[in-house]
Amino acid sequence: MTCACGHHHHHHAPRPVPGGREFALDRPLVSVTGRLICGDMSQMLLALDLLAEHVELSRTEPGNLRFDLVQGEDPMIWELNELYADETALQSHRERLGGSRWGRESREIGRDLIRKDVMPRIRPETPQDRAALARLLTRAFDGPAEARLVEALRGADDLALSLVAEAEGCIIGHVAMSPLRAAAPALALAPLAVHPAVRSRGIGQALVHAALAAFQDHAVVVLGDPAYYGRFGFAPADLESPYAGPHLLALGPRIPAGSPVAHAPAFAALAPQAASLGRGPRF
User: Which of 86, 176, 178, 213 is the most exposed place for a label (fewest CB within 10 A)?
Assistant: First the structure.
């Protein structure tokens, strides 16, 4: 298959993984799937000329979550898979489209499209998620440190839990938990991230609730914003830790006050950025 970038690649759009638990948002995400159908060679050449720019501009829209466009085995047909934060984001895309080169010059190319409202699901991470998850973390944290942290935790078998929020095969959120050496059974919650296009919609909250429900018999420690994590019951923790301070919070069975706790070794590489873990507009 050939991407809209004009290069020949052996890949396809991500497919949803069965299972998981769907949860409701205040307004649904919107998917658009289907085909672009060229009627003749001139239309196909026009598509090849214009689609790379169209795809690039669409992916940079603030409400776009995915824009995959792949030329099929029949070179006259492109397979389309789009996902938007909500109906407003889709309408903004269409408005931009009207004034673009693609919008003006491709009107004769056929469209066979299906629009659908979508609610996300929470499920465990799978191996096929890893590249998309790294991209999400890099985007959410404006850099690769947290993506490297999750990779290192995974490589050391220190990912006690790794949940993703998925919509139509697109990873839009993630939460991880790792073992914490402490005087009682305990885990560290970090990182927590949501795609910038769908922050402040309850996705981070749903991920935290799912993570906590999986380990109700453990203390959970997080380095984060007290105002945000306080809504789940987290409170300042009096613990001996390199991260001790007002942002070190705990929930669940009590770890004795003043006792030492130690994060998984992978966190040591993130130490210079530790103050940002779980804080800022990431969820």
Answer: 213
141 lies in the same domain as 98: no
Q: 69 and 195: one domain?
A: no
162 shares its domain with 75? no
pLDDT of residue 14: 56
Q: Which domain holds residue 39?
A: 2-118
Mean pLDDT rounded to a whole number for the chain: 91
Residue with more model confidence, 11 or 151: 151
Cβ atoms 221, 180 nearer than 8 A: yes
Higher pLDDT, 1 or 163: 163
CA torsion, points 198, 126, 117, 102, in degrees to nearest 10?
A: 80
User: What are the structure tokens assigned to 39, written together?
Assistant: 């009627």
Same domain? For 132 and 53 the reply is no
Q: How many domains does the chain have?
A: 2
137 pLDDT above the threshold of 60: yes
pLDDT at 12 exceeding the cut of 70 = no
